[in-house]
Fold Acyl-CoA dehydrogenase.
Amino acid sequence: MDITPSAKAKDYLDRLTVFMDEHVYPAEAVYQQQHRDAADNWAIPPIIEELKEKARAAGLWNLFLPDPELGAGLSVLDYAPMAEVTGRSPIAPDVFNCNAPDSGNMETLWLYGTEAQKKAWLEPLLNGHIRSAFLMTEPDVASSDATNIQCEMRRDGDDYVINGRKWWSSGAGDPRCAIFIVMGKTDPAAPVHTQQTMILVPANTPGVKIERYVPVFGYDDAPHGHMEITLKDVRVPASNILLGEGRGFEIAQGRLGPGRIHHCMRSIGMAERALELMCDRLLSREAFGKAIGMHSVWEERIANARVQIEMTRLLCLKAAWMMGAVGNKAAKDEIAMIKIAAPAMATRIIDDAIQAFGGAGMSDDTPLAWMYAMQRSLRLADGPDEVHRRSLARSEFKRASQCLGIDIRSIRQ
Amino acid sequence: MDITPSAKAKDYLDRLTVFMDEHVYPAEAVYQQQHRDAADNWAIPPIIEELKEKARAAGLWNLFLPDPELGAGLSVLDYAPMAEVTGRSPIAPDVFNCNAPDSGNMETLWLYGTEAQKKAWLEPLLNGHIRSAFLMTEPDVASSDATNIQCEMRRDGDDYVINGRKWWSSGAGDPRCAIFIVMGKTDPAAPVHTQQTMILVPANTPGVKIERYVPVFGYDDAPHGHMEITLKDVRVPASNILLGEGRGFEIAQGRLGPGRIHHCMRSIGMAERALELMCDRLLSREAFGKAIGMHSVWEERIANARVQIEMTRLLCLKAAWMMGAVGNKAAKDEIAMIKIAAPAMATRIIDDAIQAFGGAGMSDDTPLAWMYAMQRSLRLADGPDEVHRRSLARSEFKRASQCLGIDIRSIRQ
Amino acid sequence: MDITPSAKAKDYLDRLTVFMDEHVYPAEAVYQQQHRDAADNWAIPPIIEELKEKARAAGLWNLFLPDPELGAGLSVLDYAPMAEVTGRSPIAPDVFNCNAPDSGNMETLWLYGTEAQKKAWLEPLLNGHIRSAFLMTEPDVASSDATNIQCEMRRDGDDYVINGRKWWSSGAGDPRCAIFIVMGKTDPAAPVHTQQTMILVPANTPGVKIERYVPVFGYDDAPHGHMEITLKDVRVPASNILLGEGRGFEIAQGRLGPGRIHHCMRSIGMAERALELMCDRLLSREAFGKAIGMHSVWEERIANARVQIEMTRLLCLKAAWMMGAVGNKAAKDEIAMIKIAAPAMATRIIDDAIQAFGGAGMSDDTPLAWMYAMQRSLRLADGPDEVHRRSLARSEFKRASQCLGIDIRSIRQ
Amino acid sequence: MDITPSAKAKDYLDRLTVFMDEHVYPAEAVYQQQHRDAADNWAIPPIIEELKEKARAAGLWNLFLPDPELGAGLSVLDYAPMAEVTGRSPIAPDVFNCNAPDSGNMETLWLYGTEAQKKAWLEPLLNGHIRSAFLMTEPDVASSDATNIQCEMRRDGDDYVINGRKWWSSGAGDPRCAIFIVMGKTDPAAPVHTQQTMILVPANTPGVKIERYVPVFGYDDAPHGHMEITLKDVRVPASNILLGEGRGFEIAQGRLGPGRIHHCMRSIGMAERALELMCDRLLSREAFGKAIGMHSVWEERIANARVQIEMTRLLCLKAAWMMGAVGNKAAKDEIAMIKIAAPAMATRIIDDAIQAFGGAGMSDDTPLAWMYAMQRSLRLADGPDEVHRRSLARSEFKRASQCLGIDIRSIRQ
């Protein structure tokens, strides 16, 4: 296992780091101020588009896309440390055009889109002119079991007619959001893994209604937003289908791997930032006659944070390396592992950082409370912890039963 | 140790429980709707004043106050289960006129106020006509060490002139909030426990400026609000002092006990509500072929929740009983214990409940995320966990050193 | 809920405490030395019988038995604090003739024995002349599910013929152990709760074979011992049955309550002792320029230990109080709770104490490692944690389903 | 970072794995039986020497030693996975002549020994003819602070005269143990890091007395043993000094790195074995109508075990890789991290495995309880967790203070 970044990746990473120092961190306060001052809470603060221009000019653009012409042509492993760096700042992923869910949507279009689909949607997304959303989770069923999905997609001539209710459609609150990838059932009678289909639905299609934003611990996350959306007799041409009817599950699988690496590496970036903030605070305030950090109760937290960050990063890099070495499917256990490990690690560290800051930690004087909410949501997004633990445990049991020479199906469940 | 409620308390509790079922729980959604619909985010939803009228008419009013004429004349122990019940609903404490910080402020005025002070401020507070705030914590110093407080109170003729910056002044956002109790230093050169003084400052005194609300995670907690307030050359008559110059610490000590019981019992009420919601959800959704609750991973969480709630409640009731039996001072270790135990227990249970609900748990479709933020803040309010653990550990060491026959002061620190 | 001890209990407790200080703690080292020096590892160190004489002379004898003539006539609640005190020393329970499993066996005989059975076995047990064992757990099945038990009891004329294999038969290694209460199946075809029967089997009955001691971690727990025992065509008269055929489960239920209180209170006593030892150590050694306890990392552990001990004790006392107030059956949830809470709490605290002592903590220079092993075993004895959590969670779900107005049996399991 | 094993290492690892399957695992029960049957508890079961012959013949001998002639010539990184494999079986390290403390002692002699010292002690150690011990920890001081060491080494002519008391001298109980490396103070007045010296003391030198074995959770760990040893006027020639007077600390530093990698990788091997045993058990027993593993409460534990093992292994391999890439000194934080992470991870997993096995888990029917004791002891050996957390936290603070542009020495401690 060799996780040394390529020379090209090393160069990108160095330049990205410099760009963060010079342009992104100093812009965080500007962003906050512009957002606060805006008449419309859902408007994009102008600083974002300015930074995007700069990032693009600096060649720090679409770094996530493995395509060497459309993106930077980096492997998942090579891109991973850059995802970590962008995770350090709430505004960075947008600046470099590598924010979720757009990056995942772009990758999906790149992998599975027709030329026409690419022309219509991938191109403006890569240019950063539009944004996109991914409509999968539904409020009315336990999304932990993906077979529960109810959104109906009925063929009607050359069209599909879609009816359903989705929520946690992140980014759909963005005024620039123009296209949705929607997951639904085209054939509820089919075998469980071929019932579902992904289809492209322009945001302005009649019948699409954004009902509300769904807050996360009080945050509206404007102007990004996690939206609840109803689709009522929404009609799109059959040519909007991605890959083919009944192949939604297949795409979801293929899509998941890189997206999880990105998410988890950003979680690590956030944890590093929290640890950095925590150390600074502990050194700069005193209580009971010495710097707070010199009270050894904090040594335990700081040391555990460092250990946890290092271990989680290595696991993510291993998962990324495996995707390249043996493919996304063979790496599925490792991908489940980082999904379990990274947000849990980040929430613990951020929570300690909040404690170190006292009241300021819970307020918006630090990004910590928002980070906490964000990372806490990742223990539920893309399947709750319990589902990934179930899947991982079953892999272990399967391996164990093979060693024991028994058929796992003979075990009473 | 007898923690059986008195007959009178039992009767109040029964009536309170019925009132909650009949009036309060059904009003939660109304409150939310009115708050959402209000032009002014900081206006009080009308349902509150309606419910207050009903509660007062039902004799469920100022139950927290031990005074038999002004309040219900109940002991801390007798009132504790009622605090728990009111903690179950975010709107309940206000309805029964027993919300923090008003209840603590009323008790302070009742115990330490002059007749004139009582007439001016206690009476309208008891009537529910005005609200109050308590200005202690400061943004610029580590509040974990109370001796760090910097707010200056300078004697000038018959007045005091106050300069300082306070935050986390909860309730100061309420349009009805008319009076502040302010903690500051009258004599920085005095021995450490007589430097500080509490003084009454009407909210509309010139020089008082509410700078902003401080959010808790993403919640503004409007119309209650946790405010940052500057005091610039604020002048109040010396007669506004509570108890006497340099006696602020003494009041703080006396005030703390009952307030902590109330807070902790409300935490328990919230935890019970969270457990109730969690069980309901686990029984009403299915995944992988059975109700989610029937997956035994949830048994551990449910069982631990029940165990933790029961234990924490007993500890709170013991602390309350001790306050009556041996006095607040002798109960100080027990009061530290519940301050450590109750919010930590509640956050853990609420976090599990969030996990049970998935996305809905983090949103405002359930009260869980708000409850989490609220309880998390209580691990910092009135001193962070670390300070209470320090104090408790030192009690243990003191006891141990006595058994060993050594003088604790001879231990190298 | 009134958990104030009666005057009689208070008096016993005071005298017990004095006796512990004067006779028991100083004898611990003597016991260890005698045990080490003995030619036979399974011989009873003479100090034990000396102390028993003293305890009996002091009237501190059979305090656990509610019978006022045969025992002290104390309620479970009144006896509980005495169980705690005896739990502080590994040798104390034997000294006061209130050790498990004898106390439970005596209580069983007292409640369910015939006059002849009492004459033969209860009397010498109460006199401390013999010891007893309880043969329930079996090595070949998951004992977490009590219906799995396989030991066969076949009626043959006026006798029962018993075949089976038992283990963790604690106390059966004691040379004084003369009688076993054996649980087995008399009717495997009966409804699940009437299949099992308890029968008295003298230790010297032909066909009884003590195969070995089962170590707990590295401890043989000699001369007490947890034995593995085979019963091969063991024949006892039908008059040895307790209460009646098929009533084993019923006795097990009745027996469990008080025994669990005793066990859990002893766990608390052990935790207190560990905390005491830990504080002493932390004050008497220095590292990095101050007493180890003055490094604040220990404050967290000490404070949490105190909080956990207090809470667990209150829960145990509540469970004991409920047994008196509403009966063992109505107290079953509370009894499950303490079974989950007490050993888990004790292992955590003892583990911290071990850490405070360093190498000495794991050795036999302190009783800590043995305490750890002992308490760890209690997370498995009488049903593993998981079973009690399952039972408790199901109570919660039952209550929740009633509130929801649904029949719990309609939930898909 | 490239942690791919070299082709040579891959070959060794494959052969080692086969050897384990064919010879070592099947011999575990033989070892236990021989040990149980031996008249002398401290005799070496004959199977060990037989296996050593086979291992040596197979070329699986002294694999740990980087010297290509005396050992296998593997880097720390290349050897690490082999250490893991040997950690899976309690008897394996001895079989391959790579057990602690011998491997560390051999490495010390190889690095710092004179030719005469090597001839006398390294040669027979490499041949597996003798064993050795490392005498550092002392019972009378807090060993968490290495400067506390008291053992006196006084120069007297051409000799040194040693007086002191040591304990936890592992392996000194082995009848083959012939040589001790002793750490003590030659110059208490010197600067703190040059006070101490390491010297070779043959086990049979007059004045050396093995006082007793120190048990670990009841285990005597015979015939290895952790001994308490007094040195009374023990006289050895000055030529027995390693490296030079006052250079004990320097050697300790150099020695620590590889040893910690070995220890931690063995911890991982043990954790893997525990997980394997746990899965087997969960699949082969039923409760409440299905295999125990199918109760989802176990999914959480199994999944967390897998995640923790993977992460810890990666961290250990990174630390090993760093030692090669940047040297032991620059890798000191990583080495501290694995010392904190690995035994803690292993104890958690083993504890869960014990729970899965019930009573069998605590007994000697499985190796789990012994593994637990062993891993628990590693949270104290070579410095308790607290010391490594302290050191790691201080590195973080140092880095943070540099970023803040402040001198860490200006922080009030």
About this structure: Chain A has three domains: 7-101+120-126, 131-242, 249-404. Chain A has a mean pLDDT of 95. The CA atoms of residues 333 and 348 of chain A lie 23 Å apart.
